[in-house]
Write a structure and sequence with these properties.
The protein is mostly helical. The protein contains 5 helices and no strands. It has one domain.
Length: about 100
């Protein structure tokens, strides 16, 4: 509830389905099945983003939605995420007690 409400407060359009999916899958990179699969990745959030992208593609989501989901998950540990990176990522970041955005 906090994420979408924060989005409304800042007049950021939120895709509720994508927001929900990102919230549910945001720690997917911590699961043994996905953690450390790609030796080039150093952060579980990045691995989780890749795993969520693959999962969403398997469930007939468009490549653009899969990219947005992966970006939101990969960026969820960042202290600040700018508006240029999209509404869902900003709402997730603001919901994580980060400073307001302009």
């Amino acid at each position: 509830m906090l994420g979408p409400s924060t989005g409304q407060l800042h007049q950021i359009r939120v895709d509720d389905g994508l927001f929900f999916s990102a919230c549910v899958l945001h720690d997917l990179g911590l699961v043994a099945a996905h953690n450390g699969l790609d030796g080039s990745r150093t952060c579980f959030a990045e691995e989780g983003g890749r795993a969520a992208h693959a999962y969403a593609l398997q469930h007939q989501q468009t490549p653009e939605r899969c990219d947005r989901l992966a970006d939101a998950i990969s960026l969820h540990l960042n202290v600040r995420v700018g508006l240029r990176q999209g509404g869902i990522r900003v709402v997730i970041d603001v919901a994580g007690d980060s400073p307001p955005y302009r």
